[in-house]
């Protein structure tokens, strides 16, 4: 393809002009992979998926103009068609393109207006010609994706365990590996105390880092501050090699809040990052990342923590093992290592499972303020964790009973297990009832967004409970 115009004419031919489908002799019901009807149906599915995300862009009025949404959808569609190696459209790409379109449109100049006014720089008028907003946006987005596409890729895993038994293709997400690297290597080197704490309260790094990285922090800060951050990032590091250090510096900036937090509070801080106060706006994270690139050690972390919080970490609390994995394994890890050799390989959910939970958490926290459900979710999480702890205590009691040489041990153990099962059933009752209400409440279908948010809350609760009882 020589230009975006050529690509648009080729790939959008049937989408923009479906009447052309009737010009040929192809059968719309024929099972032919090369049929234009088959291509048209697949393209419409892809465009519907893209448009669904575009319509959920943040509440910036510019994003919700019909012609802007069409432009964003067309650019993403053509990019995916021209770059099949990326693996198709991935959620999050629309939030990288949207700010680019905004900036290009704001800077655009109408040549007619420029010619009628004072004589200006003709080169600038040509560069910012409003007739080429779509073309310029596509070119800039493609340049960003040259380096950012690695954040959206999944690759084949070298681990073949379980492939034969389940007939599955083992894959791993590079973004999950990058998230683990930031937590277990970068953060641990500069602040081992914080790294170990996040591990101890079971905060998975990919739950919040996937959004930070894939969206280049566009959801973490106010829109105008985010644009300044992008300006700094693109000028200093257009290859995005500083991304890991930016994430690390963001964690250091709120380290005291995280150290005092339990799981639910820490997750709230990380999924709704506190806005940095002037003069240390988000753009300073790029400066901190450049510093950490050359000072990735405890002294470097201490320098940044002291600079922004006025408090220096206690050296006595920072003497940790050489690696966070050197600590005693958890009960789940110990049990995992004692499985019978005759048992089939344990099925591991694909990376999409992690991303599904991340998406649910993101939508709940971002839209919860509008619907008044954030406090309800936090209260539910606290209640769930308390019930989980009680159930675990019951499990420990049941194990103790099995080891006690008493006549009524079996009867008491059954009673304890029955009580535990009732607790689990009670924990699941509320989210399951919420899911059922979505299909039975009269008139709820008329408010699809509200129904979607209610579903996300219920799913988040179930996702929170399920891993603890595998």
Can you describe this structure?
Residues 316-325 have a biased composition (Polar residues). Residues 1-237 form the Rab-GAP TBC domain. Residues 310-349 are annotated as: Disordered. With 470 residues, the protein is an all-alpha fold. 64% of the residues lie in helices and 1% in strands. The chain is built from 23 helices and 2 strands. It has a two-stranded antiparallel ribbon. The chain is globular. Mean pLDDT is 76; it is low at 160-171, 320-358, 397-405 and 466-470.
Condensed summary:
This is Rab-GAP TBC domain-containing protein. This protein is mainly α. It has 23 helices and two strands.
What brief labels describe this structure?
2 strands, Rab-GAP_TBC_sf, GTPase activation, Rab-GAP TBC domain-containing protein, Rab-GAP-TBC_dom, two-stranded antiparallel sheet, GTPase activator activity, 470 residues, 64% helix, mainly alpha, single chain
The biggest beta sheet is recorded as:
2 strands, antiparallel
Strand content: under 5%
Distance between the termini: 51 Å
Strand tally is 2
N-to-C order of helices and strands? HHHHHHHHEHEHHHHHHHHHHHHHH
What are the low-pLDDT stretches, counting only 5+ consecutive residues below 50? 160-171, 320-358, 397-405, 466-470
User: What's the total helix number?
Assistant: 23
**Secondary structure category:** mainly alpha
Compute the average pLDDT.
Answer: 76
Cα-atom radius of gyration: 26 Å
Strand order of the largest sheet: 1-2
Region (Disordered): 310-349
Organism: Xylaria arbuscula
Biased composition (Polar residues): 316-325
InterPro entries: Rab-GAP-TBC_dom (IPR000195), Rab-GAP_TBC_sf (IPR035969)
